Amino acid sequence: MKKILFLTICVFVLAGCGQTVVLLPDLDGHVGQVIVTPKDGEPVILDTANQAVGSDNKLYFLAEEEVQRIFGSALEAQPEPTARFILYFYHDSTRLKKVSKKILPEIMEAYLARSSTDVSVIGHTDGMGDKVYNHQLSLRRAKKIFSFLVKEGIPAAQIQTISHGEENPLIPNVEGRSEPKNRRVEVLVR
Q: How would you classify the pairing of strands 51-53 and 44-46?
């Protein structure tokens, strides 16, 4: 599944210069692509941070200082990128691996630092076993993390708990083969 990139595209009017389109990176620093098709001219592709095209259909770049001058207040108003945590489990179990137990406090730190009110807990399994069983196992894993987060102080109403079972693997599932990276719970703190 391709990751969808969100672009920040800003359109503004420069005195005497007409309309300009500027491509800015998204919250994670990724830069996508936008095609600008003027009324009378050839399409122009913007695919680099701070790249711009004016009404004359010519490409140029805005210096970072100019981006900050024009868009600074809008950029400062953007929310922080989603904090994402991956917790791994033992095969056919709701028991967290040791390395994942160490991540639990980081989830709470992110929640508190952001004054978050939106947390998603998404359970997954590998492709071993029955699909219905895997869906139930991934839900039990997600509920275990949900319970931990509630015990640590996050209101239950602020947590979405979802089960994907063996769907949406990190590593493609091969029938008859256990894949440890797919036995996980993802926690998203917005």
A: unpaired
Residues 14, 33: Cα–Cα separation, whole Å = 22
Please answer whether residues 87 and 187 qualify as being in contact, where contact means their C-beta atoms are separated by less than 8 angstroms.
yes
Q: What are the DSSP E strand ranges found in the chain?
A: 8-14, 18-24, 34-36, 44-46, 51-53, 59-61, 83-88, 119-123, 159-163, 184-189
CATH 3.30.1330.60, the chain: domain bounds: 83-189
Per-residue pLDDT reduced to its tens digit, 68-109: 999 999 999 988 889 999 999 999 999 999 999 999 999 999
Homologous superfamily (CATH) for 83-189: OmpA-like domain (3.30.1330.60)
Token pair, residue 186, equals 């993802």
What pTM, to 2 d.p., does this model score? 0.73
